[in-house]
Amino acid sequence: MFSSSANVSERRAAPPSLAISTVIFALRPSATSGRPTLWLPLVRRIREPFKGLWALPGGPLSHDESLQDAASRNLRDTTGLAPSYLEQLYAFGGLHRSPSQRVVSIVYWALVQPTEAALADESENVRWFRADRLGDLAFDHNAIVDYALWRLRNKLAYGSVAYHLLGEYFTLAQVREVYEAVLDRQLDPANFRRQLKATPEIEETGEYLQGGKHRPPRLYRYTGRPGLDPDNRSTP
Amino acid sequence: MFSSSANVSERRAAPPSLAISTVIFALRPSATSGRPTLWLPLVRRIREPFKGLWALPGGPLSHDESLQDAASRNLRDTTGLAPSYLEQLYAFGGLHRSPSQRVVSIVYWALVQPTEAALADESENVRWFRADRLGDLAFDHNAIVDYALWRLRNKLAYGSVAYHLLGEYFTLAQVREVYEAVLDRQLDPANFRRQLKATPEIEETGEYLQGGKHRPPRLYRYTGRPGLDPDNRSTP
DNA sequence: ATTAGTTTGAGTCAAGTTGACTATAACTAG
DNA sequence: CTAGTTATAGTCAACTTGACTCAAACTAAT
């Protein structure tokens, strides 16, 4: 370990250190509108640099775990959550990301289902924030979150990722609400439903969602595997 | 540095080491058909592990260069080339990628123009191979090349990347040949040309390519920036 | 000079997709 | 029983895509 007071020659001599961080997205009802919105958990820095500021959950890579396992553990340690989707985002390795020491961060992004997200740990030093109202984060973490959001929007348009923000059963309107929250624009209900019904990975169940105030919508299920990055390729 | 004979306890104690590698694509005429085909340069391993096998160009990350700079230097050192396109591919960090030591490799992929590629260094220990006929490579490099190919095909379909495999001026038929080489299927010339003419980043020049055996085709130019990953976002 | 061969480049047509919109069905709250 | 609201189906015009035809422009061979 290197202290934050490492001088220049120490810094030059040190090999770049390697860390894993994760951007964790979940849907929570907005405080104002009640509609689902994107939220993510951050942890407060308890030491320099950036002491007191909020940052992405992360930590060093231990020698006996893969990158994805490290991200997964990291997520469980800080929030108590198990992700329903986990993918590598990017390796950030700029020279001046941390003032004290050269750090290369391999960042993952994750989606968790709302049932899980509801029972997530929250404390003095772990808190959930709306993804569009984060304030200034430590290091380059604002840029990282921006990129993760861009990726999420992209994957969403591509098609396969929305369901991992929902539970096992969902209505087509709920899927549309996910799209509307993430893309931040309204979508035509009828046209959206037509597209979803055309994708074979969405299976109609016999069930209906009861207890609503209006006509009960049919429940659907997602059948289909995510993976296309190297770590997920072998599992069909 | 750790020797390949490091014992188990040394291995457990060592922090994972960090390396940069690059998958470099260029177009060269096929020996048989003469049509453009994808080729990439590999370097021969001169020490264990995998001594004698071919591997992707790569090396350690030095403390004073960014990840992208390291990939770029690495490319220049082994092949003498400057890339016209360079993007991060993935960070590979499986536990058993190297038998002797835990290595995390941040891999970039690059495209070089054929004029450059023609004067690339080639030697006993640096040689170009057809991307579809590589044989067994060192480490997990076959999987890495497969993933890079998958990414290339994807980006191609997305639209912006084909021109970086060509020179500054090109005919629409040359662009089609790039697509045919990378996607490995024939495309209808008339429909393909219609699509290209609809993309605003392709600009008609007044020039024609002379010296062909048939009707001289018009020359075009690509105007448009690549970047969408974090390292290239600020440059508009 | 003429013709055959080849590639460029424009256009047509049917099939499929998308966005805007209308209409009906099925439920709840009063 | 009625008004309000959401679910779900359907229509129609605009646009996109793939298969195909055809003329234009050049070279090479007769």
Structural summary, described in words:
Two copies of one chain form a homodimer. Chain A has 236 residues and is of the alpha+beta class. Chain A is 27% helix and 27% strand. Chain A has six helices and ten strands; from the N terminus they run αββββαββαβαβααββ. The A-B interface holds A 11-18, 61, 63-67, 88, 90-95, 102, 104, 106, 143-144, 147, 150, 228-230, 233 and B 11-18, 61, 63-67, 88, 90-95, 102, 104, 106, 143-144, 147, 150, 228-230, 233. The structure holds a DNA duplex (30 and 30 nucleotides).
- Strands of chain A, count: 10
Major pleated sheet of chain A: 7 strands, mixed
Low-confidence stretches of chain A: 1-12
Order of helices and strands of chain A: HEEEEHEEHEHEHHEE
Short note summarizing the structure:
The structure is a homodimer of 236-residue chains. By secondary structure, chain A is of the alpha+beta class.
Main attributes of the structure:
homodimer, alpha+beta, 7-stranded mixed β-sheet, 6 helices, about 25% helix, disordered N terminus, DNA-binding
Break the fold down into its secondary structure elements and pairings:
The structure is a homodimer of 236-residue chains.
Chain A: H1 8-13, E1 17-29, E2 36-44, E3 54-55, E4 58-60, H2 67-79, E5 85-92, E6 103-111, H3 114-118, E7 126-130, H4 141-158, E8 169-170, H5 172-183, H6 189-198, E9 202-208, E10 218-222
Parallel strand pairs in A: 1-6
Antiparallel strand pairs in A: 1-2, 1-4, 2-3, 2-7, 5-6, 8-10, 9-10
The first copy, chain A, binds a DNA duplex (30 and 30 nucleotides) through residues 171-173, 188-191, 193-195, 198, 212-218.
